[in-house]
């Protein structure tokens, strides 16, 4: 049975309204302040260490993103941690909020499909995050210009733009997850708690659990241990398990794009290659290809989670 | 977006809302069970019945907001399940629990739905102003809805329907929670809709109001429509008579005389010279003639239309115990 009319009719209206709501909301302001201040702290440390380090570096600007100066993690690591928070903050009450405000049946009684409402909300939240990230990106470039005094090369700009795009997809995964939970749970508080629980699990617990699980799934051969090495089979398992978390995918993709010397994200070599000065930097295109599977993983995750919320929302009763 | 205007108008003799065997099941429980409905253009039609009888579900099916399990339905000639946008473009809906975006003003709330309706900017602004004026909200047009009382929210909901220039207005319990004066004003506005030729479908538990403004009513019970028609018709069906006429007059043998009037089913002597007649029609002229015939003097002659309340109460009284609450 074909539906009449376009499923996207009214989507731009929803998009514009939601975008305006997000941008003017106190919630968004708080999230942005949190991110900007944390990011500034990381950048401050990064700039300090880069200015002391007088060695020539062709990718000085990119180092701003990736350098970590204990106790602060790098700018990228901080974003990997905080972007999910932002996405959850914008998505956890997307659908149940309309239910609870009792606006849903009134809005759906207008000549639009539910598709338009869900899609408009998703895109508006993603655009909000995109705007914030773009602002942060400009901040980094600007600070780099001012304090490091070197204009960024075109390749650096290109790589950092790839960072921006991948970061938005990364936000997309968390946004779809939050919206899915906002469809499943009628209470916004429950949806928020469950989203935050998943976020904490995947960002903090999973990196510890994955290697432990790998030990169980593929017990390391004692001969490797005798030599003081890791069993490659166990390491592969640990890596693959870690990749179930979007955070890991994001960090790997960023490593490939922002550290041009990264030649492989293969599980065995990853640790050895991080920050190693072996060999020349990879060309831009090859770095992007290296990050491609991870990026596709993020996009696929976004789409799958969104489809789940779509199906659920289509079948949901409108009445409160 | 733009259909031919000819498409929007169903001919006057064709019902604007038409349903046959309309059914909605949740699991294996039929919440609306094979109802037939024909509502004519310009009619004010009331949906009555105990909580959980299926009124809201019927309304939601009409708007394509919930699935139709079986049966057929057409609204203004369109199938709400297959052509929901065409239906929703022409039908205004005020849900039983209507909500607005609290942080936005009345005007902004209407602007949002106006955009969703696809109204162009200038047209939208004009319609919003007019609708707010008609709903008596002009003075609070730029106040945030968070500050609105229940009555103002209801009126804002009605303003939305006015702005839409809907052909059918579907109002689900529009006066619940309103104070008597707000209720009066709201009923007045519904009357204005009717005067414009808009078909109004109204669900309510306030029987006296329904009686006052509805041309026809339907009584829902456990997913069925058990009674449908104009109030006097229903009175005849349920109470056995439509009219109660009270006569206060002197005259010899008047009671007997009154009982002989055709259509009178029962005469009760209330006190000396006061009689109450139950009849199928308005028998006041005959009663007056009877008084004159016995050479009596007529002091008072009044007619009570049967109240919907009486019909409703009687109908559910007559059911086996617990039957009325079956679906609640
Ligand atoms: N999502 C649902 N799943 C299962 N049953 C439902 C669902 N929604 C409603 N019902 C049932 O459908 C029946 C009819 O509900 P409906 O809201 O149509 O009644 P109503 O006549 O509008 O009642 P009220 O006067 O209280 O508004 C109720 O018994 C209710 O329990
Ligand atoms: Mg109801």
TrEMBL record, chain A:
Cellular component terms (Gene Ontology): plasma membrane
Segments crossing the lipid bilayer: 29-50, 70-95, 116-149, 161-181, 188-209, 291-313
UniProt KW Membrane keyword: yes
Protein name in the entry: ABC transporter permease
Any GO MF annotation of the entry: ABC-type transporter activity
Lineage top rank: taxon: Bacteria
Keyword Transcription: no
Record keywords, A-Z: Membrane, Transmembrane, Transmembrane helix
TrEMBL record, chain B:
Pfam families (alphabetical): ABC_tran
InterPro entries: AAA+_ATPase, ABC_transporter-like_ATP-bd, P-loop_NTPase
Domain ABC transporter: 17-247
Any one Gene Ontology molecular-function term assigned to this protein's record: ATP binding
UniProt keyword list: ATP-binding, Nucleotide-binding, Transport
Superkingdom classification of source: Bacteria
Family designation: Belongs to the ABC transporter superfamily.
Known role: Involved in beta-(1-->2)glucan export. Transmembrane domains (TMD) form a pore in the inner membrane and the ATP-binding domain (NBD) is responsible for energy generation.
Protein name per its UniProtKB record: ABC transporter ATP-binding protein
Organism listed in the record: Bradyrhizobium manausense
């Amino acid at each position: 049975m074909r539906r009449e009319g376009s499923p996207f009719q009214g989507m731009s209206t929803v998009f514009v309204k939601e975008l305006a709501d997000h941008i003017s909301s106190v919630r968004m302001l708080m999230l942005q302040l949190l991110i900007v201040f944390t990011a500034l702290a990381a950048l401050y440390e990064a700039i300090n260490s880069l200015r002391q380090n007088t060695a020539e570096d062709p990718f000085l600007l990119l180092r701003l993103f990736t350098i970590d100066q204990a106790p602060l993690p790098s700018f990228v690591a901080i974003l990997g941690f905080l972007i999910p928070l932002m996405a959850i903050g914008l998505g956890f009450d997307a659908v149940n909020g309309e239910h609870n405000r009792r606006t849903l049946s009134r809005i759906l009684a207008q000549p639009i499909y539910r598709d338009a409402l869900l899609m408009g909300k998703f895109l508006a939240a993603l655009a909000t995050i995109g705007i914030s990230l773009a602002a942060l990106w400009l901040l980094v470039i600007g600070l780099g210009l001012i304090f490091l005094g070197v204009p960024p090369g075109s390749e650096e700009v290109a790589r950092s733009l790839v960072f921006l795009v991948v970061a938005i997809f990364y936000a997309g995964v968390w946004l779809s997850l939050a919206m899915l939970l906002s469809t499943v749970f009628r209470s916004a508080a429950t949806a928020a708690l469950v989203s935050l629980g998943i976020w904490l699990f995947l960002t903090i617990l999973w990196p510890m659990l994955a290697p432990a699980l790998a030990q169980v799934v593929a017990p390391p051969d004692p001969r490797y241990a005798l030599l003081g090495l890791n069993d490659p089979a166990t390491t592969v398992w640990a890596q693959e398990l870690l990749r179930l978390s979007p955070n890991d995918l994001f960090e790997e993709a960023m490593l490939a794009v922002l550290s041009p010397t990264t030649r492989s994200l293969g599980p065995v070599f990853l640790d050895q290659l991080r920050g190693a000065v072996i060999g020349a930097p990879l060309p831009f295109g090859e770095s992007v290809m290296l990050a491609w599977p991870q990026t596709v993983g993020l996009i696929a995750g976004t789409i799958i989670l969104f489809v789940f919320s779509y199906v659920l929302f289509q079948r949901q009763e409108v009445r409160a | 977006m733009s259909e031919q205007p000819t498409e929007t108008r169903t001919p006057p003799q064709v019902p604007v809302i038409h349903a046959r065997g309309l059914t909605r099941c949740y699991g294996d429980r039929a919440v609306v069970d094979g109802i037939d409905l024909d509502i004519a253009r310009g009619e004010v039609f009331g949906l009555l019945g105990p909580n959980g009888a299926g009124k809201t579900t019927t309304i939601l099916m009409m708007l394509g907001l919930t699935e139709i399990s079986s049966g057929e339905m057409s609204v203004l000639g369109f199938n709400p399940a297959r052509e929901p946008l065409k239906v929703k473009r022409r039908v205004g809906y005020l849900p039983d629990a209507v909500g607005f975006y609290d942080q936005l003003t009345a005007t902004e709330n209407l602007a949002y739905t106006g955009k969703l309706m696809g109204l162009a900017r200038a047209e939208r602004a004009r319609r919003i102003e007019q609708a707010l004026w008609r709903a008596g909200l002009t003075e609070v047009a730029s106040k945030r809805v968070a500050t609105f009382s229940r009555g103002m929210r209801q009126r804002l909901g009605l303003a939305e329907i006015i702005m839409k220039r809907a052909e059918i207005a579907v109002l689900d319990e529009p006066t619940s929670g309103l104070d008597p004066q707000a209720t009066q004003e709201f009923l007045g506005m519904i009357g204005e809709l009717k005067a414009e030729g808009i078909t109004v479908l109204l669900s309510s538990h306030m029987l006296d109001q329904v009686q006052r403004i509805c041309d026809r009513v339907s009584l829902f019970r456990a997913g069925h429509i058990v009674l449908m028609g104009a109030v006097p018709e229903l009175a005849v069906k349920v109470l056995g008579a439509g009219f109660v006429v009270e006569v206060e007059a002197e005259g010899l043998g008047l009671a007997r005389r009154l009982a002989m009037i055709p259509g009178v089913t029962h005469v009760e002597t209330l006190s000396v010279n006061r009689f109450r007649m139950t009849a199928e029609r308005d028998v006041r002229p005959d009663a007056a003639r009877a008084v004159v015939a016995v050479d009596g003097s007529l002091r008072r002659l009044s007619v009570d239309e049967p109240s919907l309340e009486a019909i409703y109460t009687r109908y559910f009284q007559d059911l086996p115990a617990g039957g009325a609450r079956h679906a609640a």
